[in-house]
Amino acid sequence: MTEPNLTHRRILRTALPIVLANATVPILGAVDTGVVGQLGEAAPIGAVGIGAIILTSIYWVFGFLRMGTVGLTSQAVGSGDNAEVVALLTRALMIGLCGGGLILVLQTPLFWAAFQISPASEEVEGLARRYMQIRIWSAPAAIAIYGLTGWLIAQERTRAVLVLQLWMNGLNIALDLWFVLGLDWGLEGVAWATLLAEYSGFALGLWLCRTAFGGTAWRAWDRILDRAKLVRMMRVNRDILVRSLLLEAIFVSFLFLGSDFGDVTLAANQVLLQFLHVTGYAMDGFAFTAEALVGRAYGAKARDQLRRAAVMTTGWALGFNIVMALCFALLGGLLIDVMADVPSVQSEARVYLPYMVAVPILGVAAWMLDGIFIGATRGADMRNMMMVSFVVYCIAASGLVPTFGNHGLWMALLISFVARGVTLGARYPALERSAQA
Question: Whole-model pTM?
Fold first, then answer.
């Protein structure tokens, strides 16, 4: 099969559905909060919030499954190994379902550990446990969806990913309204809505991947359980997992260090982090596109095509981020007022708004190089450069925070983005060399 030309239209056709799909995520969170808010009590709102964060964090540990699946599958597509493309879907589903089953078995100690790290009032914790004890049963579906999504992205089928996301979140919202406001199921209704939406999403995802099940390759166990291929998949996923845990450690430490500056500053930081999340959601579209296109070129050992994919996707990402930086500069104050109606928090957030204007520009290299290295399955480079960036962040935070306070904390976070971009950039020539035929 002839590889289609790499054009700007192809890049946007792949990237924009991911951007739109990600835009539905905060909408679902807002509806969850809104319907629980109709119960007229504060505790259920906090319980759903903390319960969702805990479960998302537990599931996120398996985020490597999406990234690793994209890189390996796109390379198999590029090399023309269709049997391996299908086998990778089966492997991803096996890992996702087994990982979800493991979470179900370990749910009691996981919940205990989560509340030790993030203690809440007795009432909120009790309600959160009720919510989590229902929703946790969708873990196999939720994690397997990572593999399905990665497999679709690797083949540039991002419209299918958009359909999957719209279906899941749309059904979740509809069931939220029915169960909580219509049937008066309260907090448990929100949990059941998410559980049913995730299992329906898993079923839809399988249907969207139905072409893989038309032959026998999806159950060719000799290939699927091939030792060398399993070891490679485990090694790639292991390195991405270590990288992701270090990145999460940076953000967790940021939140903990920010809490030392008082409730107002902590609240201001939380508001401003939403700007960073918006940037990340937008960048996912172009980073995921880079994963798929770079992976195909890497699998085909087409060095020039790889470079073209890296340059073109990064160029679009940079242009998009410049627009976002301008929007944050011009409209940031208004957005802060919408997100926080406390005058002291509004004024405090405005003090640190310039860092949010800088984030899209200073962070674009880190986001895009992550996608490029994932596509090339250079997990060891990602892991090692993340280790260096983590050390740089720790040094920067220990030196800047005592002197500049919360300003120093934001400086350290931005420095970690720059360090990741610079260190991965230094390894890029080796990535290109390894892609030569």
Answer: 0.90
